[in-house]
Specification:
Helix content: 25-40%
Low-confidence stretches: 39-55, 212-219
Keywords: Chaperone, Hydrolase, Nucleotide-binding
Pfam family, one: CobW_C
Domain CobW C-terminal: 226-319
Mean pLDDT: 84
Order of helices and strands: EHEEEEHEHHEHHEHEEHEEEEH
Catalytic activity: GTP + H2O = GDP + phosphate + H(+)
Organism: Pragia fontium DSM 5563 = ATCC 49100
Length: 319
């Protein structure tokens, strides 16, 4: 049975999550989409109660499904699966719309900590919407707003029709999350191929990062609690040594790390070693061999809260 692809939709209050969600649900994309959200808008619905946990599951007029749960996300997911198994529901994608002040971390970990949910759902990616008009003020004032950026696989910049000069904001977002491409979205309108099939939590070699060189500006750079550290290593690494450095890094800073991913060149092995993680959840495996025309070097990206960059760089530089 093919797992159901899951997209987490996050972003600070007023960033445009509901507008984007409305656009997705109204598009002629051929998907049967279920949505877990906290509140319902004025939509024609057919109320149904499913499961002992009594989630509120509603079917919209276009065939999409909405599920509102006041308690645990885990229960809402199990209720949806109950509906599928009983033949009462049918969907092939799930979107979870977070509240504006929600931390995506616990939501993300739900898909790795429950055996049945791990089997039946596959977390595809985290989309973070950023309000171009108010983003700097929100990022300066609320750490949760920065955390939403740190977890992102895609950053969607909204209200650029009102705030058109976004160069400084984009540079700031790239410093916070070097691995998430930034796209603009106007009134929820965006190509759905950007939003779906991201494979953000699949262990693969998709790792493109923005340049890590310092950005020199005449105005002071804002202070970010969330930052990206991009590390390159030209020489092949000893597997035992890199394992020890990673274990120490997780032991010391696991609560500060949000997302991390790397492609490693290992001494005396022709294959690439891939790793990725979310906070304490971490996995690694061997990938395909390095190609002859491919630059063989290790690339690692760490995104976290108040990470000691100099100390982390020094540890890898010692290898």
């Amino acid at each position: 049975m093919k797992p159901i692809a899951v997209t987490i939709l996050t972003g600070f209050l007023g960033a445009g999550k509901t507008t984007l969600l409305r656009h997705i649900l109204n598009e002629n994309h051929g998907y049967k989409i279920a949505v877990i959200e906290n509140e319902f808008g004025e939509v024609p619905i057919d109320n149904t109660i499913i499961g002992d946990r009594a989630s509120r599951i509603t079917t919209l007029s276009n065939g999409c499904i909405c599920c509102s749960k006041s308690n645990e996300l885990e229960d809402a997911l199990l209720d949806l699966l109950d509906g599928v198994d009983k033949g009462q529901l049918e969907f092939d994608r799930l979107i979870i719309e977070c509240t504006g002040m929600a931390d995506p971390g616990p939501i993300t970990q739900t898909f790795f900590s429950h055996e049945l949910i791990c089997q039946r759902f596959l977390l595809d990616g985290i989309l973070t919407l950023v309000d171009a008009v108010h983003a700097d003020q929100q990022l300066n004032k609320f750490t949760i707003s920065q955390a939403q950026i740190g977890y992102a696989d895609r950053i969607l910049l909204t209200k650029t029709d009102i705030a058109s000069d976004n160069e400084a904001l984009i540079q700031r977002l790239q410093l916070m999350n070097a691995r998430a491409p930034i796209h603009t979205v106007t009134h929820g309108d965006i190509d759905l191929s950007i939003l779906f099939d991201i494979e953000g939590f699949v262990l693969n070699d998709k790792l493109s990062v923005t340049p890590s060189a310092p950005v020199f500006r005449r105005i002071p750079q804002p202070q970010n609690n969330i930052q990206s550290i991009v590390i390159y290593h030209d020489k092949p690494l000893e597997l035992k040594q890199i394992s020890q450095v990673m274990e120490n890094l997780l032991l010391t800073f696991a609560d500060n790390l949000l997302r991390y991913k790397g492609i490693l060149s290992i001494k005396d092995d022709s294959r690439r070693l891939l790793f990725q993680g979310v906070q304490r959840l971490y996995n690694a495996d061997w990938d395909t061999e390095w190609q002859q025309d491919e630059e063989r070097k290790s690339t690692m990206v760490f995104i976290g809260i108040d990470l000691p960059e100099e100390e982390i760089r020094a540890k890898f530089a010692e290898l």
